[in-house]
Amino acid sequence: MKICMIGTGYVGLVSGSSFAELGNDVICTDINKIKINKLNEGMIPIYEPGLEELVRRNFKQGRLKFSTDIPSSIKYCDIIFICVGTPTNKKTNSANLKHVFEVTHTIKNNLNKYKVIVNKSTVPVTTGDRIEKILNIKKNKNKFDVISNPEFLREGEAIRDFMYPDRVVVGTSAKKPNNIMKNLYLPIIKKKNRYFHTSRRAAELIKYSSNAFLATKIAYINEIANLCEKSNIDVKDIAIGMGLDERIGDRFLRAGPGYGGSCFPKDTRALVATANKFKTNLSIVKSVIKSNHSRHKLLFSRINKIMSNNFKNKKITFLGVTFKAGTDDMRESPALKIIPSLIRKGAIINYYDPSGKKDILKSKKIKYFKNIKEACNKSDLLIIHTDWNEFKQLNFKKLVQRKNFKVFDMRNLYSSKKMIKSNINYFGIGR
Ligand code: UGA
Q1: Cα(276)–Cα(247) distance, integer angstroms
Q2: CA of 163 to the centre of ligand 1 (A)
Q3: In the prediction, which pLDDT does 132 show?
């Protein structure tokens, strides 16, 4: 099939190169010339395990192309995916649909034959209706169907999530585009019945409801972790004990520094904004947002306690600063909230992140190190902020080379018992 991805960001690039891998003829387009030029030279603009090889292989085989000529690419293809960003509207907390509608107008002017217009951007319920209305001019009659096909790709696991999906959700009331989509996804859904066909509005809401539900699971276990800390229980045991009940499941029950990233914070806010429009009070989602928001303050007071409120010239090392492991993404990372509070208290921050140097805060008191050893040397406190594999088997004493250092493991990577046995001042989350 001939596929055009409009928007070569995270979703467009991962989905486009994966569709090419499945044997399709794909053009990934974008208005950003620098990005497209780089991709044509083999340079990948984002960090995602396995993506570089996937792009290179399919580019070399001629199944994957990159272009800024969006009109010609639309005309050439049969399936057009809208994969642009829907950031938060700061004033209303709703999703900003500016880019979605800009793209819709470009599609409107270039419909030369029948095409399936697939919206993959995360959009509020009824956006598909609005896209359809824009496209529905006289010359475009019978030349398109607008459908919803939300993405469920986790950063750091995106290719695996694409190739082995829990489900593929397609929203349309028309038969023709549904058959085309089923055919497109056939190689990855044929083994298991994982294709779910529903209405367009339902598909749009499935995306938000899923993200908000996962955010709820995380906020919930984080609050239970707070209780565990006070009652001398390990939250990991609670998560295991709960997760064994298949109705609950053990995934997304890991307590930590709170959820971040480009999706959960933005999508929970946008879902509440949509519900407000429909005069519906999503009190649970609202509490989740509030609970997650207060998490960094809570963690800061824990660090305060660990350091006995003495931060002056104390060296604190962050292992990982991105919002989670496996990504270079800093968006809504808990570290962005915690580090400035520590600096204000007089601490010096060292950090190491496997994905490289980051823009955190312009301050001489923040220093990036290219390796774990130098970052940890003579530190007063190590904070394990993300769970990259390379943080899982560290010899803390050898790394820090000083007495009385402390470790705050925000991802519970280590066994408290072993740490106590090794005489290390160790603190976890919910333990
Ligand atoms: C999330 C969803 O998992 C994807 O299904 C969805 O497609 C994507 O958003 C999106 O809407 O585009 P992502 O933001 O990449 O994916 O990352 P997750 O792995 O879901 O983690 C989100 C946050 O929750 C991170 O800050 C992570 O550290 C935190 N988390 C996750 C926990 O604190 N505990 C857990 O058990 C799981």
Answers
A1: 30
A2: 18
A3: 98
Please indicate whether residue 152, judged by its CB atom, sits closer than 6 Å to ligand 1. yes
pLDDT tens digit string along 316-350?
999 999 999 999 999 999 999 999 999 999 999 99
What residue owns the CA closest to ligand 1's atom 35?
Answer: 252
Q: What is the pTM of this model?
A: 0.96
Q: In terms of C-beta density within 10 A (0-12 exposed, 13-18 middle, 19 or more buried), how is residue 225 classed?
A: buried
Cα three-residue angle 228-260-270, rounded to 5 degrees: 115
Instruction: Supply the pLDDT for residue 362.
Output: 86
Sheet with 348-352, edge to edge strand ranges: 366-368, 348-352, 315-319, 381-384, 406-409, 425-427
CA of 318 to the centre of ligand 1 (A): 20
167 C-alpha to center of ligand 1: Å?
17
Residue among 264, 295, 409, 411 to mutate when testing ligand 1 (max atoms within 8 A of CB): 264
CB atoms within 10 A of CB 239: 23
Nearest atom, ligand 1, residue 158 CA: 15
Query: Has 83 been annotated as catalytic?
Result: no
Q: Mutate which of 148, 153, 338 to test ligand 1's pocket (most atoms within 8 Å of Cβ)?
A: 153
